């Protein structure tokens, strides 16, 4: 895709990490971007000139599209007069591409742009993205954003070096009368690998700064992460996702620490959770910052934070001017792994509040930082 995608993500609240004492630099396994062939569908089907502005070309048995194999009804869709194309997966529409896994113990994370639904549709078909170890369904649901395109991130799997991985995008409709069905549009694929995470000095939480997650599209309005109960299968490495949260980058958003943060959207019940084995009976402090996304939204935002058996609500009065505030919570670890979660609550009904967001980085340390560092 080159252009033609809607802009206008501005409203929000952010929320980031504070810490006890940061001795080391932020460290994380360096991600590697993998090239998929024709990932943004800019190389046209064999029988179409590259600059074609024809409304929609039905791909049929007589043409091919570089990098991809297709089945069923698949359309090559110009998005704007200036160029930029996407693929629409119609009835039984399916495209696939194979890539070769490189490196062991790597997580493969995919980001892509998706447009679901449309005006006057009685049915909005879903998109199914699958790889050998995973299959994820993306369905139309009421969003907090305007705009038809959204980018999504997902965990595809983890494979051995040299394995051949078939990545498949497929439409899925519950009804067969295709007249009033709106079919999904797919564009701008980014594939990334991440190795095992290493602990950062001064933070007992792995990926507490949310540096390890899926890629961002160039003009990123954030990468949406759908619910994923398993930390092992989450695109936000080692954090499970409840509801839909947004992963945002420092290039497009104000993220005071590191390159990325999580936005938790109010008005929906959403959040993230991780687990950490700690020393039973010891006290720990969980530090984080809450802020707003500089979107002029004024409201009181409540975030529920849980660490083991301690649960507390933190509230931030937002000016919508991009301010932030650090918070902390002390808890005593029990024998079982300590669950740590951040969750937004559905506030009192107001249109404005539906658009509030939170961004966060979280930091966990033993309460006595000097003791923690001495032990390292
Ligand atoms: C497409 O490109 C060809 C060759 O570059 C040119 O002759 C043709 O006029 C172009 N068509 C459009 C619609 O821009
Ligand atoms: C492929 O091309 C042939 C010859 O032009 C045509 O008869 C046939 O209908 C085409 N196939 C499809 C599926 O459009
Ligand atoms: C798509 O999948 C089929 C098997 O289902 C495979 O034969 C084909 O090579 C795949 N296409 C690409 C481009 O990898
Ligand atoms: C389909 O998506 C549109 C938004 O693009 C929405 O207005 C409509 O209600 C959806 N229809 C159904 C049946 O979900
Ligand atoms: C949707 O329906 C309305 C009312 O029937 C009509 O005016 C409009 O043109 C339709 N939009 C599309 C994109 O078909
Ligand atoms: C936090 O607020 C929510 C919503 O008002 C409420 O349901 C929950 O019990 C509160 N939790 C605590 C620990 O106060
Ligand atoms: C909100 O705005 C007022 C006036 O502009 C300022 O004094 C106050 O510090 C701001 N509060 C926050 C939390 O940013
Ligand atoms: C908030 O947005 C305004 C206007 O876009 C900008 O001038 C300001 O620097 C931003 N503040 C922060 C903290 O990002
Ligand atoms: C905290 O650290 C100080 C300085 O290293 C030490 O004297 C003290 O005993 C520690 N407290 C606890 C509770 O471990």
From TrEMBL:
The keyword Transmembrane helix applies. It is found in: Cell envelope; Secreted. Keywords: Glycoprotein, Membrane, Secreted, Signal, Transmembrane, Transmembrane helix. PANTHER family: EMB|CAB87702.1, OS02G0527500 PROTEIN-RELATED. One of its GO terms (cellular component) is extracellular region. It holds the Pfam family DUF642. This is DUF642 domain-containing protein. InterPro entries: DGR2-like_dom (IPR006946), Pectin_Meth_Modulator (IPR052437). Residues 36-192, 203-344 form the DUF642 domain. Its main location: other. It comes from the Eukaryota. The chain crosses the membrane at residues 12-30. The keyword Secreted applies.
